[in-house]
Design a protein that fits this description.
Blueprint lengths: L14 E3 L9 E5 L1 H6 L4 H5 L1 H7 L12 E3 L3 E3 L2 E3 L7 E8 L5 E7 L16 H17 L5 E13 L3 E11 L5 H9 L3 H15 L1 H4 L6 H26 L1 E2 L21 E2 L23 H20 L3 H30 L11 H17 L3 H11 L3 H11 L1 H12 L4 H11 L7 H14 L5 H8 L30
The chain binds adenosine monophosphate and magnesium ion.
């Protein structure tokens, strides 16, 4: 494993240099060989599972790694906290992947740091396995996401409501720079560090901006903000496409890379309802399924605010330059969302004629799904199937009433063949998602036995979510209670 550690070469205001805690009996529970290959980890390195458990529990530091805990701030549920930071994570360093891009390798649950506040720095096995399952599922669904290389049991207990077995999860991300990282320096008035961070993030994520010699600082920062906004829009549209509810879209959990990070209270929506919330602490529904775009925009406004001093030293002028970008989020999101819904219904572009009924087709279906309490994923897979299966078409036409005929007529009007529609829909609408009841059943097994008989099948199925494997039907069933009693908790 060859580390390059560009973040730890920045000034030490960006992080605390600190080692992970020692654990008693490290044991490798989950290992992602496909990801290890993409990160160019050698066969030699990957061969010895006991040694991997030492490395990815934090007991041994791989050669060249330089562990740090990163500093950041963040708006949590709307309130600013100037001092968060990695309270239970250690960035080991960065490696170059087979695509030439740099990836952070971070341990989470690896012990206390200067940023731990009251926390124990640990992670229980359940949240660690949840992050592994959910991030792998998201990646396979085509949603930008951090990934997991490993889950290692520590052999130590972690004290939550009860004592639980502890684990360390190894997270891989394009970077761990967050909106909250910018807020950290902006709040301290440390403009030098803010500028350094912005330059670092531009080099890492948007080299095309860095390489443009014609831009002054203000222009570079505005282009950066715009590029981050575009990535957030793509991210959230993809969340809505597959029915993902992040659950804790605080600015410290919003990665500049546009990847999904932090899977603590996340969940999948079953029955369609924009107000769906599962997180026990989100009592007012701030992070409800249908609120995610508005919150994404709000988070981008916080990033813009943090960047203002780099845009212009006269605050009013800086605001005048940044504001249109934030406003544009709304329009761009709406367009991207419409197109995504059109794709889910087999249309490669928005209907050319754009009559009223055509434009509202997707939203009409959503309204009907909400009214009739239909499952989001299953409704779209049934619609896809109905294009080749007259019996399913008959059933849906009965269940959905006139909407069904309107949809089929519109496809015909647009000269979209059933085959073309079916193929687009099959790529856009997953056959299987990590349904909450299946995820929870597996986490419960891990908590009780440190293992699960189902995990391999579940991961295999989730890794090809657009194809039916022989094992897929085992994980397609709906929860008996429609998830009405389902609750999730932050990973703390
Ligand atoms: P999260 O809600 O997981 O995004 O975490 C918010 C903040 O709390 C971050 O600064 C975390 O590092 C910190 N944190 C969460 N859990 C723990 C823990 N068990 N020990 C120390 N810090 C934690
Ligand atoms: Mg977090």
């Amino acid at each position: 494993m060859k580390f390059s550690n560009s973040y730890s070469q920045l000034d030490n205001v960006f992080y605390q240099r600190t080692s992970p805690a020692q654990v008693s009996r490290p044991q490798l529970l989950l290992w992602n060989q496909e990801l290890a290959d993409q990160l160019l980890l050698t066969e030699d390195f990957c061969r010895d599972k006991a040694l991997l458990a030492q490395y990815f529990s934090g007991n041994r530091i791989p050669d060249g790694a330089d562990p740090i805990a990163q500093a950041y701030a963040g708006h949590q549920f709307g309130s600013f906290n100037p001092q968060l930071g990695d309270g239970r994570a250690h960035l080991l360093g960065e490696v170059l992947g087979d695509n030439g891009l740099r990836y952070d390798i971070q341990l989470k649950g690896s012990g206390q740091t200067r940023f731990s506040r009251q926390g124990d720095g640990k992670c229980a096995i359940g949240p660690a396995v949840r992050e592994y399952i959910m991030s792998e599922a998201m990646h396979a669904l085509g949603v930008p996401s951090s990934r997991c290389l490993a889950v290692t049991a520590t052999g130590d207990l972690v004290f939550r409501e009860t004592a639980k077995p502890g684990a360390v999860v190894t997270r891989v991300a394009a970077s761990h720079i967050r909106v909250g990282t910018f807020e950290y320096f902006a709040a301290r008035g440390d403009l030098d560090s803010l500028e350094t961070l912005t330059g670092f993030a531009i080099n890492r994520h948007f080299p095309e901006i860095a390489l443009n010699p014609d831009l002054d600082l203000s222009q570079r920062v505005l282009q950066f903000l715009n590029a981050v906004i575009d990535k957030q829009i793509t991210l959230i549209v993809n969340w809505l496409r597959v029915g993902f509810i992040h659950g804790v879209m605080n600015t410290d959990n919003t990665a500049i890379s546009g990847e999904t990070i932090d899977f603590g209270p996340c969940a999948m929506m079953g029955i369609y309802h924009p107000g769906t919330v599962f997180s026990s602490i989100d009592t007012r529904g701030r992070y409800a399924f249908g609120n995610q775009a508005a919150i994404g925009q709000w988070n981008m406004a916080r990033l813009a605010e943090a960047l203002l001093p780099l845009i212009d030293e006269v605050p009013e002028k800086a605001v005048a330059l940044a504001e249109p970008l934030i406003r544009q989020f709304g329009q761009d999101f709406e367009l991207a969302h419409k197109l995504m819904l059109a794709n889910k219904l087999g249309m490669p572009s928005l209907p050319a004629s754009g009559s009223k009924s055509e434009n509202s087709l997707g939203n009409d279906l959503l309204a009907q799904m909400q009214d009739q309490e239909l499952d989001y994923t299953q409704t779209f897979t049934r619609l896809t199937l109905s294009l080749e299966n007259p019996e399913q078409a008959e059933k849906l036409s009965h269940e959905l009433g006139p909407w069904y005929g309107t949809w089929r007529a519109l496809l015909a009007d647009e000269n979209i063949t059933d085959d073309a529609a079916k193929s687009l829909m099959a790529q856009t609408n997953p056959q299987v998602i990590p349904r909450n009841h299946h995820v929870e059943a597996i986490l419960a097994e891990y908590e009780q036995n440190g293992d699960s008989g189902e995990i391999e099948d579940f991961l295999t199925v989730l890794r090809t979510p657009y194809n039916l494997l022989p094992q897929t039907p085992k994980f397609q069933d709906l929860p008996a209670d429609g998830d009405r009693h389902y609750r999730t908790f932050c990973g703390t």
